Amino acid sequence: MHWSTMCLLASGSVALQSCDSESTYTATPEDVRIASLEKQLDEIDKRKAQLTSGEVENNFELPGLGFYHCEAKDFFPYKHGQNQDGKWYANGEWKEEPPAVPDPSTSRPSTAALEKIQQLLEREQQLAQQTGSTSGTSHHSTTHHHHSSGMGVGSMLMMYWMLSGNRGGFTPGAGFQNAQRQESTWRSSVDRDRQTVSSHARANPGYTRLAQQSKASGSPVTAGSSVRGGFGGSSSSSSAS
Q: Quick one: average pLDDT of 52-56?
């Protein structure tokens, strides 16, 4: 057998092994963390153009304030159209009938809403200083006050974009002014997170398949989920958390 033929057979075998490895890849806890981070980065990228233009989409969620109702131009604790006990929530009230889907689906926040955003942004900046953490895009409810894995730079950056896109609608205070100085640092932090996701994906080809499947199905990556078995399944040694 010619050496070139042997090389082709060998390289083909490696490729098959690689493909098979990807198809049986099982998600690790680190995959779960990276997938969550990637989802948040995608959300930031998706929202940037709209928020910097001053518009906010109906039911946009801002942890700490709630959900944006574009008709009322303000944030409320429940989604627009949420059903509970036979009633539907819209624009701060429970209604007897389902509300119509807003058209248009975006609006500029009211002065009161912008002031709420500015106050929340200032509180988050103070919290970040107290905890010594000003990086990371991951976010959960601000009531947890775990800033390194809490609300995060991504949410602060989006708040700044909302305010920046509506400069004439509120009186700039310390929160906004400090955010102007911090924006480039926040964007650098987000870029580092993107590099972290890219590096993990390059080192773990199976993760890329899992992430693609997660986006297509709308189901999150969980520890133990696999490309072959799909989401919802887990290995005997792993459990979703």
A: 97
- pLDDT, tens digit (0-9, with 9 covering 90-100), for 213-234: 888 888 889 988 877 544 444 4
pLDDT digits (tens, 9 = 90+) for 82-117: 999 999 999 999 999 999 999 999 999 999 999 999
Encode pLDDT of 180-213 as tens digits.
999 999 999 999 999 999 999 999 989 999 999 8
Threshold 0.90, pTM exceeds: no
CB 212 within 8 A of CB 224: no
Q: Yes or no: say if 118 and 96 are a contact pair by the CB < 8 Å rule.
A: no
3-state secondary structure string across the chain: CCHHHHHHHHHHHHHHHHHHHHHCCECCHHHHHHHHHHHHHHHHHHHHHHHHCCCEECCCEECCCEEEECCCCEEECCCCCCEECCEEEECCEEECCCCCCCCCCEECCCHHHHHHHHHHHHHHHHHHHHHCCCCCCCCCCHHHCCHHHCCHHHHHHHHHHHHHCCHHHCCCCHHHHHHHHHHHHHHHHHHHHHHHHHHHHHHCHHHHHHHHHHHHHCCCCCCCCECCCECCCCCCCCCCC
Supply 148's token pair. 């390194």
